[in-house]
Design goal:
Strand content: 5-15%
Helix content: 25-40%
Distance between the termini: 27 Å
Largest sheet: 4 strands, parallel
Number of strands: 6
Number of helices: 5
CATH class: Alpha Beta
Number of domains: 1
CATH architecture: 3-Layer(aba) Sandwich
Structural class: alpha/beta
Strand order of the largest sheet: 4-3-5-6
CATH topology: Dna Topoisomerase Vi A Subunit, Chain: A, domain 2
Amino acid sequence: MLGQPDPGGPDPKKQLVRKGEKDQGEAINDDQIEQEGKYKMPPNFVKSEVVYNLHCQKDPDRLILVESFLSVFQLYQNDVENMVALMGSSMSEQQEELIVNTLGINGKAILLFDGDEDGQKCTRDCLTRLSEKLFVKAVDIAPYAKKPHRLDPEAIKKLLS
């Protein structure tokens, strides 16, 4: 994950955010989600300052943006490269800056967000903001699946070709 390796601002050196500790992971029931949130992250972790998997991109000319790191995992297993995640259904100004600085003015951003209302809102917002700075293409996954990590390999190839 790219962002803050410890308390502080976004990390321009693309350093790995420290790994989780034993008390971190996914909530296991609705009460825990209500009280603590769906995911337990490292202390002082600010997901709006992180673009998940950006540190692995070596001078890309294209990034495929998804909402969830789970989508990054699944699509990577289907040989999709240049995947990064916002870790939510909105893009912060810090994330926008990281994406634009990584891609440069000749870069391309492919938006592959969830097919639900929040994903559509995120798509519209990212299209508006990123298209002022680089080429952006939105891909509608709704006819195939609700989330990118639920797409079958054939649908992935069709959508990204």
